[in-house]
Amino acid sequence: MGVWEITLKDLRLILKDRGALYTLLALPVVFIAILGMSTGQLITTHEASKLLKIGVVDECHGPLSDAFFSNLSAIGGIKVQKVDDRAEAKLRLQDGRNSVVVIVGKDFENRIDDLSLGDVFSTEHGKLAGGISAIDMHVESGVEFVGVSELVEYVVLSAVLRVVAPEVARRSIVLRRTIDRIMEEGAEAESGTKPASLAPVKAGPSIIYQTLVPAFMVMFAFFLINIMASSFINERKLGTLRRLQTSPISPIQLLWGKTLPFLFVSVAQSVLLFLSGKLMFGMSWGTYPFMLLPVILTTSVSAAGLGLLLATIVRTESQVSSYSTFLVIVLAGISGCYMPRAWLPQLMQNVSLATPHAWALIAYQELLTHDRPQMQVVGQSCVMLLAFGIVCFAVGCQRFTTLEYKQ
């Protein structure tokens, strides 16, 4: 019996074990689907239900306030609605119909007229240093969204500056012709005759799922170690592992044959999760989708290597359950699978680099959240993942040869 015969035998056993297949393939998809339904971000609903619902009370009713509303509405990830007055806005905050309310005061356009070019281009030192209140605008938030009010003010200020900057700059004789030419190019782009660099950004796939789907995919990839270790325990109980040891096959070939089926299943799991993310959330596969393949493969190699190492350590089903659960939960928590790595303290980010999960997340973040990913970062991450898998496989082989063949 050779490597491929052992591989095919174990693949058939895995396919017959519906519980293992559910854990490795169906459970991650179900988990991500529940995540999508809980936030209203499934492909069928995510256009109608944004993460942040902003109400706008326009007391100015001028062309600039209308232009501000249009620019704010064009920003992806939020849903903007007009609200009649402050009383209705307060009710909408209380009953949750709006998360945040932006109030455009009656003196909005007059305050804009008082701005100079320096105020617009140096918001930290000019009249806008105090925030949007300087132009008679205010942000009020519901109880659950108090923490994001400052972020909303920043977004509102950005939308205002897109409208205000051309108007203020027109007053400068030096810049008048330049601004007129830029505005003409923008008008041509809107009519479809020329692309515009200043056109409003269209809402695209939620950046949240560009982060969450890969994070949970990496975590579930390492659920493989439980199934793999259990397979070795069952082989010992049935005596088939001992019979394979007496066959004319080397220990490394035997372990290759036992590892490859789980490697194939892990790759299939990752591909399935990316397809589910695409179908359910409309998530993007990045600028270079084909570069996801080496990350998927090397992540699976590291998971299979760790699974083999664990299989040579455990001796009972209870040990499999306790050790594998500990590894899956702790490694996922340290690496940043439960929350974006950027949210972790710098010390934790450095410590997490000792886990394969962290390197997989770094590679996925680079490919999925950057228009121009740095291939050097992706390559380095793949090398680290591959090295982790090889080291675990080598140590597992050494332990297997020492403990199994010498018993």
Describe the protein in words.
Helices cover 65% and strands 6% of the residues. The chain is mainly alpha-helical and 407 residues long. A four-stranded mixed β-sheet has the order 2-1-3-4, with helices on both faces. Helix 10 (224-238) crosses helix 13 (292-313).
Topology:
Layout (H helix, E strand, L loop, with lengths): L2 H14 L1 H22 L12 E7 L4 H11 L4 E6 L2 H10 L4 E5 L3 H6 L3 H5 L15 E5 L7 H21 L3 H18 L16 H15 L2 H15 L1 H6 L5 H31 L10 H22 L3 H19 L10 H7 L3 H14 L5 H29 L4
Parallel strand pairs: 1-2, 1-3
Antiparallel strand pairs: 3-4
What would a concise description of this structure say?
The chain has 407 residues and is mainly α. It is built from 17 helices and 4 strands.
The largest pleated sheet is described as: 4 strands, mixed
Strand order of the largest sheet: 2-1-3-4
Secondary-structure element series: HHEHEHEHHEHHHHHHHHHHH
Counting structural domains, the number is: 2
Q: Count all strands and give the number.
A: 4
- Mean pLDDT equals 78
Shape: elongated
Strand % is 5-15%
- Alpha-beta classification: mainly alpha
- The helix tally amounts to 17
Enumerate the spans where pLDDT stays under 50 for 5 or more consecutive residues. Answer: 44-50, 193-205
- Terminal Cα span: 22 Å
Radius of gyration: 28 Å
Helical amount: 55-70%
